[in-house]
Amino acid sequence: MKRISRRKFLKDSGAIGGSTILASSQSMIWAAGTRDKIRIGMIGPGGHGSGLLKSFSSQKDVDVIYVCDPDTIHANRAANIVEEAGGKVPKTVSDLRRVLDDKQVDAVIIATPDHWHAAATILACEAGKHVYVEKPCSHNIREGRLMVEAAGRHGRVVQVGTQSRSADHVIRAMQLLHEGAIGEVLAAKAWNSQLRRNIGRAKPTDPPPHLEYDLWIGPSPKVPYQSNLLHSSWRWFLNFGTGDIGNDGVHDIDIARWGLGVETHPSKIAAVGGKYFFDDDQQFPDTYYVSYEYELSGGRKKQLIYEQRIWSPYVQEGYENGNAFYGTQGMMILGKQEGWQLYGPRNELRDRMKSRLNSSMHHRNFLDAIKTGERLHANIETGHLSATLAHLGNIAARVGRILHVDPKSEQIMNDVEANQLVRRQYRSGHWAIPKGI
Q1: Do 187 and 150 belong together in one domain?
Q2: What is the secondary structure of 185-230 as a DSSP string?
Q3: How many domains does the chain have?
Q4: Nearest Cα to 381, choosing from 240, 248, 257, 293?
Q5: Domain around 69
Q6: Is the Cβ–Cβ distance between 68 and 94 less than 8 Å?
Q7: CA 77, 40, 388 angle in degrees (round to 5)?
Q8: By the 8 A CB rule, do 199 and 233 touch?
Q9: Is residue 43 part of a domain?
Q10: CA 220: distance to chain centroid?
């Protein structure tokens, strides 16, 4: 088995795509040592965003100078997090344009609901800001492509929050797979097996006074406020989220695609799923089985499988969310939070690694990419390829048919209804609608 260095593996494996411009003239400011700290605006500091804010605030070369949220409770709480971490009290604003218009801001962290990811990222690139955007990077396939183009056009560093890409144990597992430790990997599986809560049913009502609901909706079609829409449960609504396949599932889908060694879109997708368990307002399946087929050169094919049961009180293969890789000479089982085991023929355990996922390594990679031009571990092209798998799974389940995709044009062929879902509907005339949509 041919051994390759970790650095060369990361460079060559597709973990860091090459066509997006990763280092810019702005990054040379820090390389030249003329300024020590990166000035950051935090957009969407509630929920997972508060964890990101704590991590970035703890970095010695970071100044968080803005926190932005249309919910004043979230914004004020975020300002306290920064102060407690030893930083100056940041400005609190509700409209992200206030952050993007300030030339002092070097980079933004975007941890908004999914429907804002692309719009905020593209606007930030246009304003000359580097971006750390949470997963899934986009709300739909077309938005993802526009994000890739914006990052390249403006020479911005754009990191996607699939933090497993920076985890040493995951990198080592991927290196072994690509070196042939289990032979040729022909199939990879990702699963999401956990117990979610019932969000109930709610009727329209007035939004609370601390929430600027119109700003929260942004470019999405305007719908009445209801109490189980936010916070956090927005991800189960079509206008704002991508379901759990785009929430938790995309992490493991990304690892599956990485281990499978495919750097394009699949050509065929089939999905069976629906709401088998929850009786509530959720609009996405709670149960899923999605199969993706990749056509490779020479007529060869590979398969990626996604399973989801978000009503499940048990775990699968020892991991709540995990991966399996099936090769011609063995198998690997991986849990991104804990480690992996590698088996040879007849389930002979040949290697294993235990570890814990440390998200701060991913955040550090983003900052180093800005300061020194270090290559990103999950740039926007990488994020777009994996997010597209979540979007295609959702589309296939909605229309109930096998999808045939042209990987180059990113269009669904011979199916007008399905192809319309490559894009989305927007609120007419809204200032945040991405150009070229």
Answers
A1: no
A2: EEEEEEEEE-BPPP-----B-PPPTTB-HHHHHTTSPP---BTTTS
A3: 2
A4: 257
A5: 6-165+361-379
A6: yes
A7: 90
A8: yes
A9: yes
A10: 19
Per-residue pLDDT of the chain (437 residues; tens, 9 = 90+): 566 666 666 766 544 444 344 444 444 445 445 578 999 999 999 989 999 999 999 999 999 999 999 999 999 999 999 999 887 899 999 999 999 999 999 999 999 999 999 999 999 999 999 999 999 999 999 999 999 999 999 999 999 999 999 999 999 999 999 999 999 999 999 999 999 999 999 999 999 999 999 999 999 999 999 999 999 999 999 999 999 999 999 999 999 999 999 999 999 999 999 999 999 999 999 999 999 999 998 899 999 999 999 999 998 899 999 999 999 999 999 999 999 999 999 999 999 999 999 999 999 999 999 999 999 999 999 999 999 999 999 999 999 999 999 999 999 999 999 999 999 999 999 999 999 98
Residue indicated by tokens 């307002």: 281
Residue 425 inside a domain? The answer is: no
User: Is residue 434 a contact partner of residue 143, using CB atoms and an 8 Å limit?
Assistant: yes
Same domain, 261 and 319: yes
Q: How far apart are CA 185 and CA 188, in angstroms?
A: 7
The set of residues, in sequence order, having a beta carbon less than 8 Å from that of 67 and lying 6+ positions away, is: 41, 42, 45, 53, 75, 78, 79, 82, 90, 91, 92, 93
CA–CA distance, 217 with 222 (Å, rounded to integer): 7
Phi, psi of 192 (to 5 degrees): -130, 95
Q: What is the DSSP string of 232-276?
A: SGGGGSTTT--HHHHHTHHHHHHHHHHHHT--S--SEEEEEEE-S
